[in-house]
């Protein structure tokens, strides 16, 4: 698969920005940003979603919404942390194909420095029958007014990036 130079350049810029933010702000950071990558896997017939979120920001959201102290990424992490993360992600990420709401399956998470990397999937998808894909990304906008959610979408040959925020949190791709 060929990837255009401008697309790779955009991903490199996003990765450098995220790396800078991660390395510069260990405890309290001034910027509120998440990065979500959405890709279609033809071999798995699934849309695969990877979201990178600052651990402390996600903990604050879980605490405010569910009154949960999770101690994410520590040896004190609560046993039901995945349950609460999944619940939160399902309430803040929404996807529709051809106007039909899609069910997200939480596959798990891993920690990478100050980030929690969450893996989700929409199963049993054929893009051949799809002519519209809608995404709504409200991650952490209920906690931080200046939250920005960078979202990269690659569905077959379609590539699009969005920067979502509290006021503008929806995007659409037409095939």
Number of helices: 3
Q: What coarse outline follows from CA principal-axis ratios?
A: globular
Q: Which H/E pattern describes the elements?
A: HEEHHEEEEEEEE
Provide the residue-averaged pLDDT. Answer: 88
Low-pLDDT windows of residues:
1-8, 22-26
Structural class: alpha+beta
Give the beta-strand count: 10
Distance between the termini: 18 Å
How much helical structure, as a percent, in the residues? 25-40%
* Order of the strands making up the biggest sheet: 5-6-2-1-8-9
Rg on CA atoms, Å: 16 Å
Name a few traits of the molecule.
disordered N terminus; four-stranded antiparallel beta sheet; 175 residues; six-stranded mixed beta sheet; 25% helix; alpha+beta
Task: Describe it.
With 175 residues, this protein is of the alpha+beta class. The chain is built from three helices and ten strands. The chain has helices at residues 5-24, 55-66, 81-92; strands at residues 33-41, 46-54, 93-97, 100-101, 105-112, 115-122, 132-137, 148-155, 158-164, 170-174. The strands form two sheets. A six-stranded mixed sheet has the order 5-6-2-1-8-9. A four-stranded antiparallel sheet has the order 4-3-7-10. A hairpin with a 2-residue loop joins strand 8 (148-155) and strand 9 (158-164). The longest helix has 20 residues, at 5-24. The protein is globular and about 45 Å long. The two termini are 18 Å apart. The model is unreliable at 1-8 and 22-26 (pLDDT under 50).
